Amino acid sequence: MGAPTPKAMALISVFATAIFSVLVAHGVRAQQPNYNVEAASSYSSGWLPAKATWYGQPNGAGPDDDGGACGFKHTKQYPFSSMTSCGNEPIFKDGKGCGRCYQIRCLNSSNPACSGKVKTVIITDMNYYPVARYHFDLSGTAFGAMAKPGLNDKLRHAGIIDIQFRRVLCNFPGLTITFHVQHGSNPFYLAVLVEHENMDGDVVQMDIMESKWVWGPPTGYWMPMRQSWGSIWRMDTNHALKGPFSLRIQSDSGKRLVANNVIPANWRPDTDYHSYVQFS
């Protein structure tokens, strides 16, 4: 059989291009690796293998807006201190993993620039394109922190490395839980970002109690809020909500905390409200 004619080659090229275009249009993606959500969430799993990459500025906190898919604010400042990371699904958990703390390390056997020293990162973002069962897409600061002294840039130049990770309790001395009322909130729609939780670091359920009338006593009735995205919870109502508001949060270990009247009746969007409560 002879070689294909130029006309045949042209038809094959057109056909291949058409198939590729259809695949792209329908969002065909690589098969998601198997993973164990419970192992990634447990405090007793020990060191687990993962891949690490980094994004953003070499000495930055990851995303340009600082917030990432969790919605956190000011991630260059304490307690984040730019030591942040995206996690793929068993770590991010559709936002329920936001705020969790993980220890990470890379060993000299993985890369000569690795120090082997343990560093702690906070989950602030989602990794949509994992390259392994567990994948930490770290801030440039966090990735470089795993290097031997003076070899931060050399390690970052590796691009992707093998690491080990394990979940640990968060500990933010001097901080209480902060509730940030999101932009666009109004009497019929209240969206609240939860930050700086000790221990588990995450929120798996949030409830709100309004007042009987503005500046009045509490109703005594908890209304469940819905997770909007990341660490942001929302309440949509067909009546104007009356403050002050008390908020109740629950972490994935089942612990609950109540911040009484933490959001005043004259609340404003784009405002932080600091509580007097913290997990311990």
Strand portion: 25-35%
Helix count, per DSSP?
5
Arithmetic mean of pLDDT: 88
Number of strands: 15
Helix content bin? 10-25%
Unreliable stretches (pLDDT < 50, length at least 5) are 6-31
In sequence order, what are the helices and strands, one letter per element?
HHEEHEEEHHEEEEEEEEEE
**Order of the strands making up the biggest sheet:** 1-5-2-4-3-6
| Alpha-carbon Rg, integer | 23 Å
Secondary structure class reads alpha+beta
Query: What characteristic shape results from the CA principal axes?
Result: elongated
Largest sheet: 6 strands, mixed, barrel
Distance between the termini: 77 Å
Explain what the structure shows.
It is a single chain. The protein is an alpha+beta fold and 280 residues long. The chain has helices at 6-25, 37-41, 89-92, 140-145, 152-157, and strands at 48-55, 84-87, 101-105, 119-126, 135-139, 161-168, 178-181, 189-195, 205-209, 223-224, 226-229, 232-236, 245-250, 256-263, 271-274. The strands form three sheets. The protein has a six-stranded mixed β-barrel. The chain has a five-stranded antiparallel beta sheet with strand order 11-12-8-7-15, with no helix packed on it. β11 and β12 form a beta hairpin.
Short description:
By secondary structure, this protein is α+β, with helices and mostly antiparallel strands. Helices cover 15% and strands 30% of the residues.
Topology:
Elements: H1 6-25, H2 37-41, E1 48-55, E2 84-87, H3 89-92, E3 101-105, E4 119-126, E5 135-139, H4 140-145, H5 152-157, E6 161-168, E7 178-181, E8 189-195, E9 205-209, E10 223-224, E11 226-229, E12 232-236, E13 245-250, E14 256-263, E15 271-274
Parallel strand pairs: 1-5, 2-4
Antiparallel strand pairs: 1-6, 2-5, 3-4, 3-6, 7-8, 7-15, 8-12, 9-10, 9-13, 11-12, 13-14
